Amino acid sequence: MIDSELDNAELIQNAPLMAMVYDRPGKGDDLVIEVGKHEVTYAHTIDSPTEVLTGQDSNGVMIALRISDAASTKTLIQLQSS
Q1: % helix / strand / coil in the chain, to the nearest 5?
Q2: If we measure between CA atoms, which residue out of 64, 67, 63 comes closest to residue 52?
Q3: How many angstroms separate the Cα of 50 from the Cα of each of 9, 17, 40, 62?
Q4: pTM given for the model
Q5: What are phi and psi of 77, to 5 degrees?
Q6: Is residue 59 left, alpha or beta, with left meaning phi > 0 and alpha meaning psi from -120 to 50?
Q7: How much is the average pLDDT of 62-71?
Q8: 82/78 Cα distance (integer angstroms)
Q9: 51: exposed, middle or buried (C-beta count within 10 Å: 0-12, 13-18, 19+)?
Q10: How far is residue 59 from each of residues 25, 51, 56, 67, 79, measured CA to CA in Å?
Q11: Per residue in 3-38, pLDDT tens?
């Protein structure tokens, strides 16, 4: 999570991405990122996401996501192949 007030806090690393679930406005307007191999071991909620940007390598494979919310907090997810 990147936030000027939180000074770039790292929440979790080297964990398998299990799911990303978005509830649209009227249903919650949040994005939940879940990690874990056979069960969810950690979940991170982004309230009212406003922007999702992707980064790709030279072969066009997605390697990163940056998600911004209404409070200008940014969540960065770096992806690796398993």
Answers
A1: 0, 50, 50
A2: 67
A3: 20, 21, 25, 20
A4: 0.80
A5: -120, 120
A6: alpha
A7: 92
A8: 13
A9: exposed
A10: 34, 24, 7, 22, 14
A11: 555 565 666 788 899 999 999 988 889 999 999 999
